[in-house]
Amino acid sequence: MNLLAIETSCDETAAAVIAETGDAAKPWAIRSNVVASQDAIHREWGGVVPELASRQHLRDICGVVDRALEQGAVTWNDIGAVAVTQGPGLVGSLLVGVSFAKSVAWTRGIPLVPVHHLAGHIESLVLHHGELPLPAAVLVVSGGHTSLYLVGEPGRYQLIGRTRDDAAGEAFDKVAKLLGLGYPGGPILDRVARTGNDRAYAFPMPRMTHADRFQPRATAPLGLLPPDLARQVDFSFSGLKTAVMRTVKAGGARREPGLSADALAKTEGGTALEAADVADIAASFQRVVVEALLDRTFDVASWLGAKSLGIAGGVSANSRLRAEAEARGAKLGLPVFVPPLSLSTDNAAMIGAAGLRKFRTGVIADWELNALASLPL
Ligand code: KG4
Ligand code: ZN
Hints:
Layout: E1 2-7, E2 12-20, E3 28-37, H1 39-43, H2 50-71, E4 79-87, H3 91-108, E5 112-116, H4 117-129, E6 136-141, E7 146-151, E8 157-162, H5 168-178, H6 185-193, H7 227-230, H8 238-249, E9 264-266, E10 272-274, H9 275-303, E11 308-312, H10 319-332, E12 336-337, H11 341-344, H12 349-359
Parallel strand pairs: 1-4, 4-5, 6-11, 11-12
Antiparallel strand pairs: 1-2, 2-3, 6-7, 7-8, 9-10
Helix pairs in contact: 2-3, 4-12, 5-6, 5-8, 5-9, 6-9, 9-10
This protein binds 5'-O-[(R)-(carboxyoxy)(hydroxy)phosphoryl]adenosine and zinc ion (ZN).
């Protein structure tokens, strides 16, 4: 069967056609995967403007779906079901996809499958690599989420840890903005960091070392981890972001002043920083984020006896995160899976994969299906 998938949870309008292969080890194949990015629209504002995003989805959705059918070499008659991201995300954006998918399901008389955006990110790994050795520890790290799941059996996701404040992608974007690097910040910071010294600045490593008095309960289900370990699994990035902000405000505060004006880059607050300092701050920040993410994820994988480790979501495109995860995995003999770049950031192919998984367990939405800004997985 071919399934049409639609994703409009944030600022990409995406549609894909996914086919079932009949091979249990690698159950799905991509026939087409079309993404219309809204970066050019939101760049001017330095972040996603929800109202503009939903209006642009409306303009793009028909053309994107047409292209997905065309590139997949299928017609409407070849589509057996339609899957759509129900949440979490921007509700105005989600509603465009949900309404469109309902119309398709109604007019074509085919089943409608609701998909959780993060299930899509997790299944992007299976879509590309085939079923993972289970149990797997899977880190979903994106602009809106930093969540660590245990996948004990296909399609079953248990939340083990999550961020207590900012998502890692959000921290990348904010720090890139502070450094005056432009939008979207994550990929630019990744590029700039390659030329910097990652030990130039000693930013604090965000770590939950004790029971947080505001969040005394751990995220992991009771009994899965020893209580003292369970409480250390959550992530936090707001302190790190503040440390970078202080450094930027202090003008780098590491080298002597007296640099020539053309060697100075303008940061968000108008502070003049030498371009080399910008690269050093970016590299030092990125080193700490990557370590914080991987320390926790590899610890959990080992505590839970995981047979593989996955990293998905937009930040999994980060070159340092990918390289270090693979190096650590190789050292430990633990298989590490990351999606190809085309499936790291938001796309509909991953929603199609998660949609087929759900459809085959009998999950079908009715006409009451609504978009939800927040939705537990
Ligand atoms: O999964 P995604 O496309 O959207 C959400 O579901 O949030 O993730 C987008 C996030 C953004 O914060 C973006 O800056 C970040 O992923 N990102 C990166 C890189 N590429 C995308 N962060 C660091 N390094 C990258 N190469
Ligand atoms: Zn995403």
